[in-house]
Structure formats: C-alpha cells, structure tokens
Amino acid sequence: MVAAFATFGLFWGSWAVMLFDIQRAFALDDAQLGLLLAVAIAVAGASSAVMAHYCDRVGARRLLWLAMIAWSVLLCVLALMHQKWAFAVVLVVTEVAGGAIDTAMNAEASHRLVDHPSVLVRLHALFNSGALAGAAVAGLLIHAGVNWRWIWPGIALVALGVGVWAAASDSGTPLAAASPDAAGPETSHPLRRLRREGLLLLLLVFALAEITEGGVDTWGVLYLRNHLATGVLLGAGAYVVGQAVAATTRGAGGPLLGRLGSRRALIVGGCVAGGGILLESLTSLSGLAALGLALGAGGASLFWPLVMSTVSKQASQVVSAVGAFTAAGYVGWVAGAPIVGWISQTLGPARGLQVLAVAAFAVAGCTLLSPVRRSADGPSG
C-alpha cells in the first residue's frame, strides 16, 4: 500500500508538470484539454464504483496488482501515441486502470486503518511525496532537454515492480472475507445507506472539493507556464513546494489534524486553498503566483484524506462507501475540467482559476453550515 500510494503520486506529479508540453504536442486549447480530461475521468469514475464491489469479492490486494501491471503497460503505450485521437483513447483506458488502483488503495487502507483515521491521513502523505518526486524529476528532465515521452516509461517500470511485489504477497483471501462489509445483513441501496449514516451531504461536499484539488494540479501549473510565461523549473518548483506543504501537513500534522477534527480541518483547508488560488489568479508577478499555487495545492491536499477518515469512522460498509466516495471524487474532476477549461478559453485563464477558488471557499462554507455529528468531528485518533 505504501509503495502504491507513492507510485500513483509519481504519475500525477509528472502529469502536472508535463501538461504544458502535452498540450503543445497535440495542439490542444484549454477547452479541448478540459473536455479530454472530463471524458477520461468520467469513465474512470464510473469504473471505480464497479471496482468497489469487485474488491469485496476478490480482495483489494489482488485488484491492486492486476491494475498496476495493466497500468504500467498502458503508460508505455500512451507515451508512444502521436495522433491526437489515439492519445485520447489510450488516456481514457489508462485512467480506468488508474481508477482501479485508486479504489484498491483506499479500500485496503480504510479497512486496515478504520480505527486510526489520523494514520490514514498520514498515509496519504506518501501520495504527495510521490507527486513531489514526480514533478521534480519531470521538471529537471524537461529543463535538461529530455523529451517528456520518456518520463512515463520510467514510471511504468516502478509501477510494474510494485505490481509484481503485490502479486507475490497476495494471499488470495478476499478483503470481504474479513471485512464487516461481508458479515452484515445490510443490503439497502448505497445512497440510502449513506444518507442514513449522515454521509450523503459529505459526498456532495467531497465532489465539490475535488473540483478544486484536481483543478489545482491541472490548471494551476499550466497557468504559470502558459499564461505567465514562467520556465518549467519555476512551474515545477511551485508545484513541488505545494506538495511538500501537503506531505508535511498530512504526515507531521496527522496528530494535530486528529485533535482539530475533520470538520474544522476541512474548513481550514478550504480557506487556505481558496486564498492561495485566488492570489495566483490576481497577481502578474510569477513569484507571488507560485506562492499562491503552493498554498492552493497544500490546502486542497487535505480534502481527500480528511473525508476518507470520516467515512472510515461512520460507514457501516467501509469498502462500498470508499468506492462511492472515490467515484464522487472523480465526478468532481469531471465537472471541473470542462468548466474551467471553457471559462479559461472564453473569459481568460485567471477567471478559470477563480472558479476553483470559489469551489474551495464553498467547501469551507458547506462544511461550516452542515449539521455537526459528534462521531465525525471528534478526535480522530
């Protein structure tokens, strides 16, 4: 699980830095890029909901190594694509495999750490550490003149190693065999069950939060490189700083977040993310914009682990709930990508970032106004 979180972060860190080069290689404007991301992530989100039930039957670890091996092959194929349509098709399939990895990681982690939410928050710091490394390596290689297409095969080798490792340690026992999900008689519809457990509003807030988190990774770095004409090192460096802040907050700040409570931590994260993104959109100074990007990435990084820690404490069927929330997170990405892309193309890139800032402030506002549940907002362990 540790290696999987870090490896998945490698890909998204490199993606954030390489997106400028990908956009130029395939002559994509902001609206086209947003539409492509929306389609890819929509399919991945739908598959995540299905994969959650697959986890119950065959086990998260088995799903993880199968998805990891498939994903490593697809990354190599993706790097070879030169036609726009072929790249789009392979990207969609690659995101489906990535969605399966995401579901398997979170299901296994949430199941094992159901009584230790603050440890779950720290575990997600490994994703940020991987993203930090991926962005730094990609930025340095591209600055040195290495073609961006060579970066993904390198990540594929790491993913293949992790997949083989997971396969070798697979005991063949499905997670559901030891999970409370499999033992209970609960068979109601997932949405009705989430509403009864007080998680339905959080599901909607989470989708809104992922509009911001996904948007920062995609549009925040692209704004620096494409519209403020900064070099690859400054764009990558700002993202690296943001991921370092995120890793520190999730890692060293896990116990603090546990005492603060997921509710208050979500409010703080939403305000920090919104303020940082707004700062980036309003300044023409590249250094100040880079600071805003770092704050935006750091604040938004709190959303996923804090929500998952709450879900792991409140849900009666953890694996199923994690799958539903993972799908909702992808829905947020889907909604955000074309909206921000279209606004950036028609009204200007700064307006696109301001939409992300509004979404972040809305997360804080919705969390502040939502009913308080003692079990969700108490100390997180």
Give the strand tally.
0
Mean pLDDT: 77
Residue share in β-strands: under 5%
Q: Determine the structural class based on helices, strands and strand pairing.
A: mainly alpha
SS field, number of helical segments: 19
Order of helices and strands: HHHHHHHHHHHHHHHHHHH
Proportion of residues in helical segments: over 70%
The major β-sheet equals: none
Choose one word for the global shape. Answer: globular
Write down the Rg. Answer: 19 Å
Low-confidence stretches: 174-187, 374-381
Cα distance spanning the termini = 20 Å
Structural write-up:
By secondary structure, the protein is mainly α. It is built from 19 helices and no strands. It has helices at 2-25, 30-58, 60-80, 84-112, 117-123, 125-143, 151-168, 175-178, 180-183, 190-196, 200-227, 232-251, 254-260, 262-282, 286-300, 303-314, 318-347, 349-369, 374-377. α1 runs antiparallel to α7 and α14 (262-282) packs antiparallel against α15 (286-300). The chain is globular. Mean pLDDT is 77; it is low at 174-187 and 374-381.
Question: What is this entry, summarized?
Answer:
The protein has helices at residues 2-25, 30-58, 60-80, 84-112, 117-123, 125-143, 151-168, 175-178, 180-183, 190-196, 200-227, 232-251, 254-260, 262-282, 286-300, 303-314, 318-347, 349-369, 374-377. The chain is mainly α and 381 residues long. Residues 174-187 and 374-381 have low confidence and may be disordered.
